[in-house]
Write a structure and sequence with these properties.
The relative contact order is 0.09. This protein folds into four domains: 130 residues, Immunoglobulin-like, CATH 2.60.40; 118 residues, Sandwich (Immunoglobulin-like), CATH 2.60.40.10; 103 residues, Sandwich (Immunoglobulin-like); 32 residues. The strands form seven sheets. It has a six-stranded antiparallel beta sheet, with no helix packed on it. 10% of the residues lie in helices and 55% in strands. The protein is built from two helices and 29 strands. The N terminus is likely disordered. The longest helix has 30 residues. By secondary structure, it is mostly beta strands.
């Protein structure tokens, strides 16, 4: 009985027990004393250094067996807590197996850092086990988490359709790009259609459709993009021109700071010019005498017209006496200007078609050149209420004057004879 008890005590004493002898979170090295000898665990390095919120970090640990006995069935385990985690495809433990006497083993883990991680040195806990090594204390090494640069910019903006007519609708898509190397959270883009300036409140001629002027993207990873859209209606009285719309961008960077910046996007309001013509004045009555023709050019469209020029084309029915090309200049929307030419008929005509070539630019600088035909009716003097016997009337007048003169002369001569 005494021999059996003595053998049991000897067996229990032969079981190795590990006790922590060194723990430094700053250096990431921990030492353990077992019956096999001293075991040291150290964090060799991690990459990248420092690591940014939202990134992955590779962490290497080294296990040194300084004893004279091998470690069997060695397992190294990390115990990640916020802000660290291991993805589902990864693992939080490594089967090391046997570590011989005066030998070492390396283990590597891929750890994810939360986008919400605070800056600073964050502890990553770990432990290990082996046959005969019990009561292993949980310790930790530190990972430096530092905010990287984060910058959100407008990388692209487009309107569909590209040009909107007054009273029409368009959809503006704005692409926001994270050009930094850190996560961005709660990114908002606000399209400013009402602005406060030093001169007061300025309201641009656009109205949001179906939603507000602020859109939010929850997260944008480094190098990634997000898109927001703004359906707009152009007011019916919007002038044809290019408008600059400020976009206020707000976001929270990986350091928890609120960042605000202003970008500019452009939208063009454009209405096609619409020209109609009228004969304003016509002095032509026949082929004998040149006459002046005045043409009225009416801008019926919503866009102002600039640099308007009209050129009268000569035909086999008439010739242009004055310069064929007349410069008119600007014609405002819902307004008109005139241009005149002196023409002479080559033969008797009751009507003419006057071909014109007009060129101009709209309010946005787009150039136009088109042909127009203006019908012209030739009215006879009789149709205009004028007499056609002007020559005969003139002759009759002369005869009357001569007859009167003769009668006066004879009357005076007769009186002179009676006096004698």
């Amino acid at each position: 009985m005494r021999i059996s008890l003595l053998l049991l005590i000897i067996a229990l004493l032969s079981v190795p027990v590990a006790n922590s002898i060194y723990d430094s979170s700053n250096t990431g090295t921990s030492g353990y004393r077992t019956s096999y000898g001293d075991i040291y665990v150290s964090q060799l390095r991690y990459d990248p250094f420092p690591v940014s919120p939202g990134q992955y970090v590779d962490v290497w640990y080294k296990i040194d067996n300084t004893g004279d006995t091998e470690l069997k069935n060695t397992v190294f385990t990390i115990l990640p807590e916020f802000p660290f985690s291991v993805d589902g495809s990864g693992t939080s433990f490594k089967q090391v197996g046997v570590i011989g006497p005066h030998s070492s083993a390396l283990v590597k883990f891929k750890v994810r850092v939360s986008e919400s991680a605070l800056q600073g040195d964050q502890p990553l806990k770990y432990t290990w086990s082996a046959d005969g090594a019990t009561n292993i204390a949980v310790t930790s090494s530190e990972i430096s988490v530092r905010s990287a640069n984060a910058m959100l910019v407008v990388s692209n903006a487009k309107a569909t359709p590209e040009k909107v007519s007054p009273g029409g609708q368009t959809n503006i898509e704005i692409e926001l790009a994270n050009v930094g190397d850190a996560f961005i959270r709660y990114a908002t883009a606000s399209l400013q259609v009402v602005q406060q300036t030093s001169a007061g409140v300025v309201e641009l001629p656009f109205t949001p459709i179906g939603q507000g002027v602020t859109q939010t993207i929850m997260n944008i990873e480094p190098g990634k993009k997000g898109t927001v859209s703004f359906p707009l209606s152009a007011n019916a009285d919007a002038k044809s021109m290019a408008y600059k719309l400020p976009v206020v961008i707000n976001y929270i960077d990986s350091g928890g700071r609120n960042v605000s910046r202003v970008e500019i996007v452009g939208i063009t309001v454009n209405a096609e010019p619409e020209i109609i013509t009228y004969i304003d004045k016509n002095d032509i009555v026949d082929e004998k005498t040149p006459g002046e023709v005045v043409i009225r050019f009416v801008n019926k469209g919503r866009s102002d017209i600039k640099f308007f020029t009209a050129t009268m084309q000569e035909t086999d029915k008439y010739m242009v006496i004055t310069s064929p090309t007349q410069y008119v200049g600007g014609i405002n929307s819902d307004d008109y200007e005139t241009a005149s030419w002196k023409l002479k008929l080559k033969s008797a005509q009751s009507s003419l078609d006057l071909p014109l070539v007009v060129s101009y630019e709209d309010a946005n600088g787009k150039k136009y050149s088109t042909g127009l035909t203006v019908p012209l009716a030739i009215r006879t003097p009789a149709e205009l209420g004028q007499s056609t016997n002007n020559g005969m009337q003139y002759l009759v007048g002369i005869v009357i004057v001569v007859v009167v003169a003769i009668l006066i002369f004879r009357s005076r001569k007769s009186r002179k004879k009676r006096t004698e």
